[in-house]
Amino acid sequence: MKKKIDKPYVSIITPNLNCEKFIENTIQSVINQNSQNYEYILIDGKSTDKSIKIIKKYIDKIDTFISEKDKGMYYAIDKGIRKAKGNVIIWINSDDILDENAVRNVENFFKKNPDIDWISGINGYIKNNFKFSGIPYVYPRFILKKGYAQHALWGFVQQESISFRKNLYTKVGGFEYNYNYSCDYGLWMKFSKVTSLKTVFFKIGFFRYWTGQDSKLNKVNIFKSIGYKKIPFYSFRYIRNFLSLLMLPYVVIKTYFLTK
Fold first, then answer.
1. C-alpha distance across the termini of the chain, in Å
2. What is the CA radius of gyration of the chain?
3. What is the model's pLDDT at position 29?
4. What CATH superfamily is the domain 10-259?
5. What residues are paired with 119 via a beta bridge?
6. Reduced to 3 states, what is the DSSP secondary structure of residue 142?
């Protein structure tokens, strides 16, 4: 049984709806963290597959579990964040996983840097069950504020590698649901009006590529929700990749001194 912590520093939120294929991997990546200074909140949208059965196997290791009809993933995430007791939020979807040191890394960083509210770590991926990491991407504040952080331009912010303070989420008023399939994109824009996104050199989460994922099935709708009539044929992400690679030594050194 997971030891209950009255005031956890980190709150981990997982939304789920009919993701029986990967939800167990996600849960295991959370409960096997090297630091136990977290609470785990799992919000299910009344799944009709085997998700609930799988979740109940780990129910004594989940601090808050709710299964009820909702209006979609972002409503579930908002529900979880508003229930969170922690100072800092990690949001990991039910087909992705956390790095085993995610809580420790995030807790250490935010405790040592009280003036920083929002970070992006090393980008992690899972393809064909092979887990690997890339580099942390750099997102200049004006790119985020102008809405240029999307695949046709600078590239979307990888949500699995993001962590932020709960009071930042509260301060901006949470999600704007008019973005529909891209409410995280809208949230990053709101965050950027208040603060900048700091790039750090440690792992938080891994994004899983698979045929049934929402980001593939709803690709057209994702672009429509940010103002495109169809999927653009162009992308300037190679500029982001080049700049991030160029700045990698600076990011590594700065992260070292900020976490020393």
1. 33
2. 17
3. 98
4. Spore Coat Polysaccharide Biosynthesis Protein SpsA; Chain A (3.90.550.10)
5. 163, 198
6. helix
